[in-house]
Design brief:
The chain has 167 residues and is mostly beta strands. It folds into two domains: 4-68, Sandwich (Immunoglobulin-like), CATH 2.60.40; 79-163, Immunoglobulin-like (Sandwich), CATH 2.60.40.10. The chain is 0% helix and 44% strand. The protein has no helices and 13 strands. The strands form four sheets. A four-stranded mixed beta sheet has the order 7-13-12-9, with no helix packed on it. A three-stranded antiparallel beta sheet has the order 1-2-3, with no helix packed on it.
């Protein structure tokens, strides 16, 4: 009778762990005859085969399929998105401040968008620079979103933009 070979799914990331055999005559031990490899750096499905041959020449096998999934998309970081602006920006002088300076852990290019900006202000989608001019003194809630190219997890920051007359 062939040895019974089993492979525990809990130990799938380490092929040599969680595989054992038992035989009525030869006893029980860990499986050492393993074919197949798992590359945890490459997304895909891998098959491992565990084999044990007893002293009588009977062979038992078990297979385990290991699936390596992609790492989650990291969120970019940047404190600059939390910076608001207050000052005498109404009239001809205009307003300029940087809501950018966000970095992506994977080095991807960041695209910026903004909502809630007063009429006359806009955001540079490449730099995150908010600029423009207008003649109203306002307080607005502005949301800036920094999204890495091809990314699925943007960094979103909301702040209060206050424009006052300091004359």
């Amino acid at each position: 009778m062939a040895p019974a070979v089993s492979a525990s799914p809990q130990a799938a990331a380490t092929p040599s762990r969680g595989a054992s055999w038992s035989d009525v005559v030869d006893g029980t031990d860990t499986v050492t005859d393993i074919t197949g490899t798992v590359n945890t750096a490459v997304v895909g499905s891998y098959t491992l085969t565990y084999r044990k041959t007893d002293v009588a020449g009977n062979t038992g096998t078990a297979t385990r399929t290991v699936t390596v999934n992609a790492a989650p998309d990291p969120t970019p970081t940047g404190v600059a998105l939390a910076i608001g602006a207050t000052g005498d920006f109404a009239g001809a002088s205009g307003i300029t401040f940087n809501a950018g300076r966000t970095t992506d852990p994977l080095g991807r290019v960041i695209a910026y968008t903004a909502s809630g900006l007063p009429t006359g202000l806009g955001i540079n989608s490449s730099t995150g620079m908010i600029s423009g001019g207008y003649d109203a003194f306002v307080t607005e809630t502005v949301t800036v979103t920094a999204t890495p190219a091809g990314g699925t997890r943007p960094l979103v920051r909301t702040f209060t933009l206050t424009v006052i007359d300091q004359r």
